[in-house]
Amino acid sequence: MARTTGRSTTYLTRRLVQLYVGLTLYGASSALLVRAELGLEPWGVLHQGLAELTGISIGVVSIIIAAVVLLLWIPLRQRPGLGTVSNVFVVGLAMDGTLAVVGDLDGLGFRVPVMVLGIVLNGVATGLYIAARFGPGPRDGLMTGLNRVTGRSIRLVRTAIEVAVVVTGFLLGGSLGAGTVLYALAIGPLAQFFLRIFALPEPAGPGAVVAADEPSTSAPPAGSGPVADPASGQAILPQ
Predict the structure, then answer these.
(1) pLDDT tens for residues 189-203?
(2) Closest Cα partner for 22 from 112, 135, 157, 116?
């Protein structure tokens, strides 16, 4: 009995470590894309545009937007998990912390490698976070909730949301560029690859179960970005 409890504790500890390391790296990767100044991921474009408009730091804007999106879960009847709530705060704080440490970069010789590092690190972070199975991020819960309510495909709903987000962010002054395009093309395969690396085995032993609000760790289709499993009603991307 004690041995089973010990294994369960170790398993839970590893999941928690993956969750918070993944969220922290996600914020850090977004900050690197900001410093590269070659284009941000879709929601990053909106965050940056609002930061430029309001004078609030981009990390705090990320927290505010995530909290507002989480409120939209209420009419959609989505259930948040530990990962959902943690996502609201950890990503934004990690982003501002990284920006405070990494200063402005001069020249493409520095900015291009930092852009590539940011995108790869984002894939690593996504794999870590998804594999921890503590619930979807606020923005993905919005996506899967709309998928369920409207009956439209995940791909269509995701595309509509991200187009609206990018256009709004760009009009507000957010950065679009090569990094935005490269991110869109690379994040799906990267997330799929790192999800397989960081996937956790199911806990062994009698009575070992996974909480009902935890999404599966099925890999996203290559090239489309990490998306949700429509059958489960849960999303997997922390962005």
Answers:
(1) 999 899 999 998 876
(2) 135
Determine the straight-line distance between the first and last CA of the chain, rounded to whole angstroms: 39
d(CA 238, CA 217): 13
Token pair 């899967």 in the structure block, residue: 144
Give the whole-angstrom CA distance, residue 183 versus residue 60. 23
- Phi, psi (deg, nearest 5) at residue 229: -85, 110
Which tokens hold the place of 14?
């590893």
234 phi/psi in degrees, rounded to 5:
-120, 150
Rounded to an integer, what distance in angstroms lies between the CA atom of residue 38 and that of residue 198?
29
| Alpha carbon distance 163, 209 (integer Å) | 38
Its pTM stands at: 0.82
Indicate if the pLDDT at residue 222 is higher than 70: no
Query: Which stretches within the chain are classed as H helix?
Result: 2-36, 42-54, 58-71, 73-76, 82-101, 108-132, 138-150, 154-171, 178-198
Which residue type does 87 have?
N
> CB neighbours (10 Å) of residue 196?
12
